[in-house]
Amino acid sequence: MQSHDSYLALTEASAQALRALPCDVVVTGANGWLGRATLDMLRQALGAEFGQRVVALGSRDDPPVRALESWVPPAGRGLLLWHYAFLTKDRAEGMPLADYERRNRALRERVLGWVRGGSVWGMVLPSSGAVYDYLHATGRDAAVREYGRLKVEDEQAFGAACAQAGARLVIARVFNLSGPYINKIEHYALASMIRQVLAGEPVAVRAARPVLRSYYYVGDCLELCARMLLRSVPGQCEAFDVAGEEVVELGELGRCVAAVLQSPHAQVLRPALLADAEEDCYVGDRTRISLLENKLGLHPLGLAAQIRETARYLQTMLAPLPALG
To answer: To bridge 23 with a disulfide, which of 80, 126, 177, 233 should be the other Cys (CB 3.0-4.6 Å)?
Structure first.
C-alpha cells in the first residue's frame, strides 16, 4: 500500500517478486523524472530494506544520491539496474554536438563495464521514440536526430553486452509519459496545459499544424518494465514502444484537460492551422506493448485518468493553486 507521501507503487505481486530477488537495485539518473518515480516505487516495494538494497546514482555526490562516475559495484552481489543516466535532447540543444556525444558515450561505457563484468542480473533501459527520427531520417531537427542516434547506439551496445553476459534486458522506447515526478513543466505539453488550467489561464497551443500525441502513465510503464524483467530469462532482450491507446491532437488535449479539471469553459488559444502543414505525429506503435499488456494482465490508465493523476501531483508542486477534489 502507498504511504501518504508516495505517489506510485508496484503491484503487490511485483513487489513480492522484487523482495525475493537476491539482488541490490541500482537507479542511475536518480534525480530525473523516471529516476525519482522508480525510487518511489522501490521504496514502497522494499519498505525497511530500501536503504540497504537500493543505490541511487547521479551526476554528483549529493546524499542520498551518489556520484555515478566514482561508484563501483560491490563484489559478489547481483544488480537489478534501472539505467536512466543520459543527457536528454534539450541538453543537446545547449552544447556542441561533439560534447553532447562524448558525454553520453562516457556514461554508456561506464555502465557497460558493470554489465561486462558480470555484475548485472537484469536491466531496464529507457530508449526514445527519437530512435525512429534517426532510423527513418525524418525532417525533425538535428538535435533530435543526434539524440535518436545515440539512443540507437545504446540499444545496440547494451543489447549485445547483456546477451553476452547472460543479463536480462528490457528496452522501453518512450514517447510521451504522464504522471507524478514530471519535471520541466513548460517543456511538456500535457504538464503545461494542466498548469495553465489550474491557474485559471487560457491553454496556449503554439503549433500551427496538427500535432498528434499519445500518453502512457509513468506508473504503468514502470510496472510493465518490472513485470517483464522479473519474468524474463538470462540473455533475453525485450523491446517495445511505450505508446498509449488514445491518440489526441493538442487542441483536443487542451479541451480534454479543461474538462477533466472541471474548467470546461477554459479557452484554448492557438494560431490558425496552415492548410498545407504536415502533421507532427509522435505516438509510437502499440502492436508489441498491446500484446504485453494482454499477456501480463496490465490495464493502463486512460487519458482522462492520466490527466487527473498528473494534476494531483502538479497541484502539490504549484501551491497555492487550488487542490483537486
So the answer is: 80
Query: Considering just the CA atoms, what is the radius of gyration of the chain in Å?
Result: 20
Residue among 235, 227, 175 at smallest CA distance from 15: 227
Cα 241 to the chain's mean position, in Å? 12
Q: Which amino acid is at 125?
A: L
Confirm if 315 and 323 have CB atoms less than 8 A apart. yes
Q: Which residue has the cell 511505450?
A: 242
Q: Containing H/E element for 78?
A: strand 78-83
pLDDT 10s digits, 184-193: 899 999 999 9
SS3 state of residue 131: helix
Q: Which own/partner contact pairs does 61-67 have at CB distance under 8 Å and 24+ positions apart?
A: 62/31, 65/30, 65/31
Report how far Cα 33 is from the mean position of its chain's Cα atoms.
7
* Residue 296 burial (C-beta neighbours within 10 Å; 0-12, 13-18, 19+): middle
pLDDT in tens, 124-177: 999 999 999 999 987 667 778 889 999 999 999 999 999 999 999 999 999 999
How does DSSP classify residue 274? Answer: P
